[in-house]
Amino acid sequence: MSIRHCYNVADFRRLAKRRLPAPIFHYLDGGADNEWSLKNNHAAFSKYQLVPEYLKDISRINLEATVLGSKLAAPVILAPTGMSRLFHHEKEPAVARAAEQTGLMYSLSTLGTTSIEDVAAVKPGPKMFQVYIHKDRGLTSEFVNRAKAAGYDALCLTVDSVVGGNRERDRKTGFEMPPRLTLNSLTSFALHPHWTFNLWRNPDFRLANVAHRQDALSKGPISVIEYVDSQYDRTVTWKQATWLIEQWGGPFAIKGLQSPADARRAAAAGASAIMLSNHGGRQLDTTPAPVDCIKPVRDAVGNDLELIVDGGIRRGTDALKALALGADAISFGRPYLYALAAGGQMGVLRYLDLFKAELERGMALLGCTSISELDERHVQ
Q1: What single string gives the DSSP state of each residue in 330-371?
Q2: What CATH number does domain 3-378 carry, 3.20.20.70, 3.30.1360.120, 3.40.50.1000, 3.50.50.100?
Q3: Cα 151 from Cα 149, distance rounded (Å)
């Protein structure tokens, strides 16, 4: 099987599973506790049905939208995901280049294995940098200054990860950063020689944006949860969020909110957008699916904030449901990581092209010619 025979997320996931050692695949694929939120994020979309309107001129379909101050070819943001080097040796630049080719926004994670500056060099178009606030507070100001200097269009603060989620799959498979051969993982690494060869050829798994200040990985292999619990600041409040918004002075998203009360606080703090997200079901299990949060949050903030639905999106029809319910854009991480693992930059590009084609086809079948036409009458 090759990426030419991948037509949807399930196909890319199957190919990724073939190409990644078990500890790496399950780190990408897993969630917290019983993984209820992980499964429900996508399952929740099945509760909503699209309602088309026919006998309309759909000869021209326009997917363009302005999100976080940037004009995009479609209202799609590639979510910040840490440590892309785990999944393919082409790392974050492969995803950034594919996003550039398709006119979409790419988000670089604090925990990326490529620097702020190196991603900017291959992604002149719309891009966002995502911040975790570390105990080393000087890093936060540095992130703001570096992202500004490199031409990033927006900043994103993730707030749902001050404590690491209970990811039991990682404990069972023995996942560590950086990856290493152990008795438990030896067979799986041996059965995936292409990935293992590239591990040997390019073993640099440094967290490129924090390594110069305090790279916990330099002390030896560590679980992701150990890194989060040792490095992230648990004292962060809305006061620090407001300060960060003021320091950035541009489009600003807060990622990880789900409650209407927090949405109102974000608006009061000066945020531009909320990314409705439960971290892909990887943090607090049994939290609601982001798609189910759209209406109560939109009712709470009106049009004061852009709403970006992050989690559970697998097809273009999922995106159309979210947009019709009141979201301004959608975001996903796992789908493009499956594609990255399956085929590097070309895998990501194929997935994004397929997704945009699904969006355009779905718009035509709904009887809509532009994103702005989507509203509640198209979903029940």
Answers
A1: EEESHHHHHHHHHHHHHHHHHHHHHHHHHHHHHHHHHT-SBG
A2: 3.20.20.70
A3: 6
CA distance 156 to 85: 21
The reported pLDDT for the residue numbered 221 is: 58
Average model confidence (pLDDT) across the chain: 92
Structural domain spans, the chain: 3-378
Neighbours of 235 (CB within 10 A): 8
Q: State pLDDT tens for residues 276-323.
A: 999 999 999 999 999 999 999 999 999 999 999 999 999 999 999 999
Most confident of 163-177, 231-245, 356-370: 356-370
The identity of residue 185, as a single letter, is: S
**Alpha helix (H) residue ranges in 123-259:** 138-149, 168-173, 186-190, 193-201, 211-214, 224-231, 238-248
More reliable by pLDDT, 376 or 197: 376
The full length of the chain comes to 380
Amino acid 261: pLDDT: 98
Active site annotation includes 134? no
Number of other residues whose CB lies within 10 A of the CB of residue 60: 8
Enter the DSSP assignment of 22.
Answer: H
Report CA 167 to chain centroid distance, whole Å: 18
**Residues 69 and 77: beta-carbon distance below 8 Å:** no
Exactly one of 42, 134, 279, 378 is catalytic; name it. 279
